[in-house]
Design a protein that fits this description.
Blueprint (H helix, E strand, L loop, with lengths): L3 E2 L12 H31 L3 H17 L1 H10 L2 H26 L6 H5 L8 H32 L5 H30 L3 H18 L4 E2 L12 H13 L2 H21 L2 H7 L5 H29 L1 H21 L3 H29 L2 H17 L1 H18 L2 H23 L5 H13 L6
Antiparallel strand pairs: 1-2
Helix pairs in contact: 1-6, 1-7, 1-8, 2-6, 2-15, 2-16, 3-6, 3-9, 3-15, 4-6, 4-8, 6-15, 7-12, 7-14, 9-15, 10-15, 10-16, 10-17, 12-13, 12-14, 13-14, 13-17, 16-17
Length: 452
């Protein structure tokens, strides 16, 4: 084993350990605040404008840091203490969200109420407030890149590699409960009180999570291979990039996941308009809509290990393409939010299987001293395409509305994403078979650090 936690790691391979549970609780609290934000930010944006491009631009700015900042974040993650980076990123997110909360508090008197927003009413576009939302989401996205990359690369230092699928599955289950089952309904309730209240709650959750991460004992990591001269940032970036690019399986996974995430953002970026105008949801119903994802995520996280053992990881990954494409098409045809709730739970279920399998695989086969950089290159491809998808979602609505009805325009992103994911299934499934996944893991067992 290449890394150890000083003094506190359990010697029993069946136990996840105290540090893991601190990490899990911190992530739960942070995701609870994120769940509140899932309601607060889109509802605030839709109170300012009904323009689909402007709504989608908020999602673009939120995900753009994954395209611009992923690669240098990988070097930072490998150069500095990952636990400290996570703590500081959450402090930064907490402070920034407090600023947003006070700005919204100052301007909420001129914003339409939640019921008016539900009815499609928006105030005159407040470009100062809208600009603040864009800046805040971009900066929060920058901190998220650091936090998420450090968190994924910290996990192999906290639990035994044989327990990674179990640890990741449990973590994603509770994150889903907090993020999409408890957080959104709570956010809707807080939104009724005042537009600013959910943002204050979000800020406190980030700061509380930072405190919990600080309680995790320091991690002693194995040193990187000795070099005569300190490498430059460019050299370190190249080393991480080339390791992934020469690994045929991880290269394929990164590009395929990038396309999947892009297609999801085509619909996610404008979901608030689809929910308000097609599904006719209230703030409370919009919050409940997200709980479908929580149910799917919890089931996927807890059942991932036995399902993978039963049908194999390759078939589990194939479910993401085949089942996922059908779900997107059904949602596009639906006008009832309970139907969308069920479909969302199915989509997140198969998506969680994908996450548990692929993240655990990366944590197992990438050498620790390269884990931050290779993981960041992987997520550069996998997450960097999300802002492109978000922008496409808004453009699809605008173009469709030029020749069709508003209803058709709001449904069209789902149809485009669904059919595109079906095509991706035909092309990508043969590249991600159980045999190829197991061969990559087996090859690393005897030759850690070598590209297979």
């Amino acid at each position: 084993m290449s890394v150890e936690q000083a003094g506190t790691r359990s010697t029993e391979s069946t136990k996840l350990g105290a540090s893991y549970w601190k990490l899990l609780v911190a992530s739960t609290i942070s995701n609870l605040g994120d769940g509140v934000g899932l309601i607060a930010y889109p509802w605030l944006a839709s109170a300012i404008t009904r323009n689909p491009i402007l709504i989608a631009l908020v999602a673009v700015l939120q995900k753009l840091p994954w395209l611009l900042f992923s690669l240098p974040a990988g070097v930072i993650t490998d150069r500095f203490d990952r636990r400290t980076l996570m703590m500081r990123a959450n402090v930064a997110r907490g402070v920034l969200t407090l600023v947003v909360a006070f700005v919204v508090l100052d301007r909420q008197g001129v914003l339409p109420g939640p019921d008016e927003v539900e009815a499609g009413v928006a105030g005159g576009t407040d470009f100062v407030l809208y600009g603040m939302i864009l800046l805040a989401t971009f900066m929060l996205g920058m901190a998220e890149v650091i936090y998420d990359n450090a968190g994924q690369t910290l996990m192999p230092s906290v639990v035994d590699k044989s327990l990674l699928e179990k640890a990741n599955g449990r973590l994603w289950s509770v994150e889903q409960v907090a993020n999409t089952f408890i957080g959104p309904p709570l956010g809707a309730a807080l939104l009724v009180v005042a537009f600013a209240v959910p943002f204050f709650f979000d800020a406190v959750s980030f700061l509380a999570a930072a405190l919990l991460i600080a309680l995790i004992p320091p991690i002693r990591r194995s040193a990187a291979p000795e070099k005569s001269d300190a490498p430059s940032w460019r050299a370190e970036l190249k080393e991480g990039f080339m390791w992934l690019w020469k690994h045929p399986l991880l290269q394929s996974m990164a590009i395929i996941l990038g396309l999947l995430n892009m297609l999801w953002m085509v619909v996610a970026a404008v979901l608030v308009l689809f929910a308000q105008e097609i599904l006719e949801t209230t703030p409370a119903e919009f919050a409940l809509l997200g709980t479908g994802g929580a149910v799917g995520g919890v089931l996927g996280g807890w059942l991932a290990s036995p399902i993978v053992a039963k049908i194999g990881p390759g078939r589990c990954l194939a479910l993401m393409f085949s089942v996922g494409s059908m779900v997107l098409l059904v949602i596009g045809l639906s006008s009832l939010w309970p139907v969308v709730w069920v479909m969302t739970s199915i989509y997140v279920f198969v998506g969680t299987l994908w996450n548990v399998i692929t993240v655990s695989l990366r944590q197992s086969i990438i050498p620790d001293h390269l884990l931050g950089r290779v993981n960041s290159v992987y997520r550069f491809f996998a997450w960097g395409m999300m802002p492109i998808g978000a922008l496409l979602g808004g453009l699809i609505i605008v173009v469709t509305e030029s020749f069709g009805s508003r209803e058709l325009a709001l449904r069209m992103p789902w149809f485009v994403a669904g059919f595109a994911q079906l095509i991706l299934f035909i092309v990508a499934a043969p590249k991600l078979t159980t045999a190829k996944l197991e061969a990559a893991r087996a090859a690393t067992t005897g030759t850690v650090g070598e590209v297979v």
